[in-house]
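Write out this protein's structure.
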Amino acid sequence: MATKRKVNNLMALAVLSVIVQRPMHRYEIATALRAHGKDQDMDIKWGSLYTVVQNMAKAGFLEVVGSERAGARPERVIYRITDAGRAEMADWTRELLASPEPEHRRFTAGLSVLAVLPPAEVIELLGVRIAALERIIDTTSEEMDALAVTLPRLFLIETEYGLAMLAAEAQWARSLRAELQAGTLDGLDAWRQWHAEGMPTDRIPDLGERGKD
């Protein structure tokens, strides 16, 4: 079970991962997050950065060490990580690496209700998705190869994992599409009949009832 954290927002972990390098104000934090590609690794909402930093300071994970002003710009408060922040960062990372949790993805949501579309359309849509995944895989692989020239694998490991997940998804989608095309998917005949006869949607099995008596 996930630990109930004082600041339960992955953006907080991202902030800790960059501010551990040196004290920063919020603009520097945002710049560092973008430079490290954290907005690609985590669900970061930039408009929440101010609130997240404030909450982390209240929780004792960050502390104010000064401020600076450049010209007519507003004063910028500089924060640094505390010992409690370092401990939180390490504990949170351990949890994320060791404890699997269900992740709600849009593709899973679509698959859970795919019966509302006719099989032929699903075959076509899966083909579109597979082609898109292949483009993303190719582009990301090229980018990672270019970065690998100057960066050790340690700093590309999350991209490597992302590629593996994309490749697995593409392969699974190809397999499902092939079953639909070959007519071997269990329940396919009934599915076709629902759409051929215009059967009311309330007759389509409710996948949300799985596991209930």
